[in-house]
Amino acid sequence: MSELENIPYITANFPGIQGEIKADPSHFIVEEIPLYEPEGEGEHVYVCLTREGATTNSIRNQLARTFGLREVEIGYAGMKDKYARSTQTFSLQLFNITENEVKERILDSLPVEVKYVKRHKNKLRVGHLLGNKFIIILKTADPSAFNTAIKIKDELLKLSMPNFYGTQRFGIRSDNAVRGKEVLMGKSTRKYWLDNLLLSAYQSALFNIWLAKRIEKGWYNTLLQGDIAKKTDTGGLFEVEDENIERPRFINREITYTGPIYGGKMMRAKGIPGELEQDILNAENIATDQFKKAKLEGTRRPAQIYLSDLSITPHKDGLYFEFTLPKGSYATVLMREFTKSEHEELNED
Questions:
Q1: pTM above 0.85, yes or no
Q2: Catalytic residue among 81, 195, 227, 349
Q3: What is the pLDDT of residue 108?
Q4: Domain 163-305: which CATH number of 3.30.470.10, 3.30.1360.110, 3.30.2350.20, 3.40.50.10330
Q5: What is the distance, to the nearest Å, from the Cα of residue 102 to the centroid of all Cα atoms in its chain?
Q6: Per-residue DSSP letters for 25-66?
Q7: Range 314-338 average pLDDT
Q8: Which end of the chain has fewer CB atoms at under 10 Å, N or C?
Q9: How far is C-alpha 184 from the geometric centre of its chain's CA atoms?
Q10: Among this protein's residues, is 81 annotated catalytic?
Q11: Is the pLDDT of residue 6 over 90?
């Protein structure tokens, strides 16, 4: 899995501006964009809160203790980093308690700000969000950083952002993908949740390898016959049978091509793109049947993220970045294009 250490920069023609993105928690602000708003009634209480210096799991554990709940009775849409100012929503399965009482008990027990408390009919689950809004202050004393950053920004707006998985996906020691391959080949940890975590890391690593190969071959901004494309408005998937017919939609960013999250039910590319996907499995000595045996269905992941609202302005501490990303995309993958260095990664799924 050495390819994980060689993820290319799509803006490699520009030098990096270096800098630090977590000089202070207030320098990395992330706010969830909800998939839907709570309706005001139901057995689950949605609590939108802002916190610093705490992980998503630690907040969930504190909420469980405060209300005497089991972990399964508390939901959330995505993980957020400890060293950031994060606004996210949790759902708590609670009966016979008012929304005001919930808010008061949280403020008495947890070092957080509560944005709202409102009931809803269903539990909040991972993925129940549209994306995340980010404000990042890159600490740098380089006087030329702003001009370079604007050039990189213009290139990213033209080319799009490669939708790599961030290195946090692969664990503190960066070995989750290697361990996931071992699980896939039959070496279970005997812990169901850990097996799933490691298998997911391996699937993510294979996607990163695929996207790096696509860039290496000069196919990043090219739609190929046999690609599995995704409609950017509805999310619908379809096979590209004639790239000449679909190319105008690709140029207009109405569609993008997707990469493999390998699994037994994954929609497979054909032609040259399909050969690339199979070559990666061959290099890993992995067969599709092994994903089926591990009960991994698989899916497709967009290869490119079109940035619509990226802005950069000077700041007293360096540079001020503001942008939104869809769920599952990583702010640090975007920031590395500017710094040309690997930061300590953040959980931002």
A1: yes
A2: 81
A3: 96
A4: 3.30.2350.20
A5: 30
A6: GGGEEEEEEESS---S-SSEEEEEEEESS--HHHHHHHHHHH
A7: 95
A8: N
A9: 23
A10: yes
A11: no
